[in-house]
Amino acid sequence: MNKVRENYVRPLDLKHGRVDMTHGSGGRAMAQLIEELFAKHFDNEFLRQGNDGSVLPPLTLGGRLVMSCDGHVVSPLFFPGGDIGCLSVHGTLNDVAVMGAQPLYLAASFILEEGLPLADLARIVASMAKAAKDAGVPIVTGDTKVVEAGKADGIFITTTGVGVLPEGVALSGDRARPGDVILLSGTLGDHGMAIMAQRESLGFSAPILSDTAALHGLIAAMLATGADIRCLRDPTRGGLATTLNEIARQSGVGMMLDEAAIPVNGEVAAACEFLGLDPLYVANEGKLVAVVAAADADRLLAAMRAHPQGARAAKIGTVLVDDHHFVQMTTGFGGRRIVDWLTGEQLPRIC
Amino acid sequence: MCLAIPARVAEILGGDQAVVDLGGVRKEVSLALLDDVSVGDYVIVHVGYALQKLDPEEAARTLALFAEMGKPA
Amino acid sequence: MKYVDEFRDGGLARGLAVAIAAEASPARRYSFMEFCGGHTHAISRYGVGDLLPAHVRMVHGPGCPVCVLPIGRVDMAIALALRHGVILCTYGDCLRVPASDGLSLMKAKAGVGNMRGDVRMVYSSADALKIAQDNPGRQVVFFAIGFETTTPPTAVVIKQAAALGLDNFSVLCCHVLTPSAISNILESPEVRELGTVPLDGFIGPAHVSTVIGSAPYEFFAEEFRKPVVIAGFEPLDVMQAILMLVRQVNEGRAEVENEFARAVTREGNLKAQNLVSEIFELRRAFEWRGLGLVPYSALKIRREYARFDAEVRFPLDYRSVADNKACECGAILRGVKRPQDCKLFGTVCTPENPIGSCMVSSEGACAAHYTYGRYKDTQ
Predict the structure, then answer these.
(1) Is A182 helix (H, G, I), strand (E, B) or coil?
(2) Cβ contact (<8 Å) for A267 and B5?
(3) Cβ-nearest to C269 among B6, B52, B62
(4) Residues C97, C66: contact at Cβ < 8 Å?
(5) Is the dihedral of CA B51, B55, B56, B62 positive or negative?
(6) Is the peptide bond before A76 cis (omega within 30 degrees of 0)?
(7) Is the pLDDT of residue A5 over 90?
């Protein structure tokens, strides 16, 4: 008679297996999923504590805490230049970093849809782990839930980031002043169009890569210049247009942009033409906008361009006095127009 | 109305379908509304259909005319 | 992008702007209607108006298929989705058009009471046909809107559906005709008798004309003595067309000229025209938002293809619905008023909460002015 092997569990079938309801039941299957997938990839001293929460060391640097949270839903889950895993790390890190803070820790919550291939989940988790490791920010706690097939879109990932804001740094959307200069770290629309080009119904093939990236390295280099930076933002959903309108409203100012100075990759511009979209409204996941005192603008721009993530940084406009808080633009054609908030959602149009 | 854009025919697929190229972006379109389209032609694409061929000589003439009419008299 | 970027060149634009300013006589005013929303959009997006002298004024026309779509037709599409349980396929442009009872296709998709419409956005008529093939157990209706540019692709899929013997595909046909709308404007009392809308000429449609050719406009030039310049949708095309119109007016000519010769011939696309007349026939009359009932201004599906006609297949009644009383879309679509003349503009009617159709489509006169040009109202 065979001897019963105590506590034997067959390893997860990462080739053909799929997420099922037991993976969220709180039982052995869930423990196994966490152990063989999440804990294995994310491994760090805090997760190894194995408790409901992680105990973190006291802050030695001083400064205040910054915390930000971001839910990630994207279809398709894998796209040229990235996937929902690294996106969920970059998105939240960037929200912490544009506050001027140094990101320290991440937390991640997963909603898995019954039927999600475990191979896909493993790829996503590995990508998240790599993004976190590259950024030097550990994922210290997490949670997993499973919902029935049809009640989610494969996987939703919510991440929370904590960072520390050094004394003296105060970046805020209400600090833009007339005369300030607006800098953009690189090309617009790469992420949004990379996703759009994957939609089967549009029948596209375009060599467009998502720009998803963690920006805290670039931001650290910018802060190190000592330039009087009023505000940093990453123009994600709603694109540059929405971000600038938010800042204009918060600060009670207007803006004038120079269309010719705004960098857009040729393929992104072409894909936008096909679909009737405007790159100013398309999402980015690895770009930032800086509003800076005019006297420091050139110095800051030089520092941005010296960093690989800011090689195509440009001075794209200035802040004005305007009671209507309009963001306007001198068009490449020589006219003038408003760059308004995004209305509704960006839909391909025929007219 | 009628968002449409000129794109170069990069490949004829048969079954009235073709691949067009616009600035490095490729898209499959229908040629059902045109006859005699060849690779290299520019066609005006609307809602996934090529509507008309673009005449390169006329395009060059129009551009020249812009320059000429815009010259100070 | 070849054949695109060259036609947006700012340097050439300055040259044309100087020429227009030099040739437009300061002794008179010039009012030109750009019929198409495509031109309206180009003028606003590139700021063409800033390059024109003050006495050359552009009047926006009704050439936006979403804007002229009457509420009653959207109501029919919503009824198909909610009450008849079909998969309703639509171009993205139609999703947000306000219909009766505060509804839109977007809201029908999200759900109304305990009903939820299966509304799917398509990029092409071919996508709708494919959805029908992929869902043999469901009725699939394509909500077909648009002018002569968008009609041939609808004709193609109806013909393909017939060849495939598909019995779950039909079309709610709302295709309309450009020349009838131009006639309607030229015959309107405001233009003809009252003179409240001075119209010195038209910029003719770009892509519509690639299909129908330039010949149909000759009637307007002769009968109404109005110059017509067919122009491409790039901003330099528009500038050039304005200069050509100014010259015609100055020289007392009323001719059809073709600035968009790179894609428009006199005859147009005969293959597309033949296909359209094989599948469609004229409607006796069709209601346009803003213009009212316009005789012979739209198409319906011929009897031979009636089984692909959603209005035959489903018990649908068309009910004319009046616009919001304070909404000036009608007058704006006829060129009688400007968006900023409407009390609702920018107050209760905004792109987020459109009351009238001109605020919905990005090329509607109100949306274009709100989105791109309203800084001018503050100066």
Answers:
(1) strand
(2) no
(3) B52
(4) yes
(5) negative
(6) yes
(7) no
Q: What is the pLDDT of residue A265?
A: 96
The domain locations on chain B are: 5-69
Q: Judge whether B40 is closer than 8 Å to chain C, CB to CB.
A: no
Tokens of residue A54, six digits: 């992680």
Chains in contact with B via at least 3 Cβ–Cβ pairs below 8 Å? A, C
Q: How many of the other CB atoms lie within 10 Å of CB of C353?
A: 10
| Neighbouring C-alpha atoms within 13 Å toward the C-beta of A127 | 22
- Looking at residue C59, the DSSP 8-state letter turns out to be E
What CATH code is assigned to B5-69? 2.30.30.140
Answer for the pair A242, A235: CB distance below 8 angstroms, yes or no.
Answer: yes
Task: Tell me if the pTM is above 0.80.
Answer: yes
Angle, vertex CA A70, rays to CA A137 and CA A136, nearest 5: 10
Q: What is the CATH number of the domain that holds C105?
A: 3.40.50.11740
Task: Find the length of chain B.
Answer: 73
Q: CA of B23, closest CA in chain C: separation in Å? A: 5
Read off the pLDDT of residues A90-106 as tens digits, 9 standing for 90 and up: 999 999 999 999 999 99
Q: Is residue C85 in a domain?
A: yes
Nearest to B66 by CA among A135, C244, C192: C244
The total of other beta-carbon atoms located within 10 Å of residue A62's CB is 9
pLDDT cut 70: percent of chain A above it: 97
Band (C376; pLDDT cuts 50, 70, 90)? confident
Answer yes or no: is pLDDT of B1 > 50. Answer: no
Segment 340-369 of chain C within 8 Å of chain B by CB? 363
Using one digit for the tens of pLDDT, what is the confidence trace for C279-291? 999 999 999 988 8
For the residues of C207-218, what is the DSSP string, one character each?
Answer: HHHHHH-SGGGH
Q: Which residues of C202-239 are buried (b: 16+ CB within 10 A; e: fewer)?
A: bbbbbbbbbbbbbebbeebbeebebbbbbbbbbbbbbb
Range A210-224 average pLDDT:
97
Strand locations in chain C (E) = 30-36, 56-63, 87-91, 118-122, 140-146, 169-175, 201-204, 228-230, 256-258, 280-282, 285-288, 292-295, 299-301
Sheet holding C56-63, edge to edge: C56-63, C30-36, C201-204, C228-230, C256-258
> Domain range spanning residue C117?
67-176+269-313
C196 pLDDT band, cuts 50/70/90, is: confident
Question: Is C149 touching B (CB cutoff 8 A)?
Answer: yes
> What confidence category does residue A1 fall into, taking pLDDT thresholds of 50, 70 and 90?
low
CB C101 within 8 A of CB C149: no
Q: Is residue C87 part of a domain?
A: yes
Q: Which of A45-54, A204-213, A295-304, C52-61 has the highest mean pLDDT?
A: A295-304
**Best interface-test mutation with B: which of A208, A209, A267, A274 has the largest number of B CBs within 10 A?**
A274
Please count the residues of chain A.
351
Q: Is the ipTM of this complex over 0.90?
A: yes
Separation of CA C345 from chain center: 20
C269 versus A274: which is more confidently predicted? C269
Query: What does the H/E/C string look like for B18-68?
Result: EEEEECCEEEEEECCCCCCCCCCCEEEEECCEEEEECCHHHHHHHHHHHHH
Look at strands A289-292 and C56-63 and give their pairing: unpaired
Q: Model confidence over A118-129: pLDDT tens digits?
A: 999 999 999 999
d(CA A31, CA A336): 60
Query: Does A80 contact B at CB distance below 8 Å?
Result: no
Considering only the beta carbons, identify the residue of C208, C237, C262 that sits closest to B2: C208
Q: Could you give all domains of chain A from N- to C-terminal order, each with its CATH number?
A: 21-52+61-165 (3.30.1330.10), 181-338 (3.90.650.10)
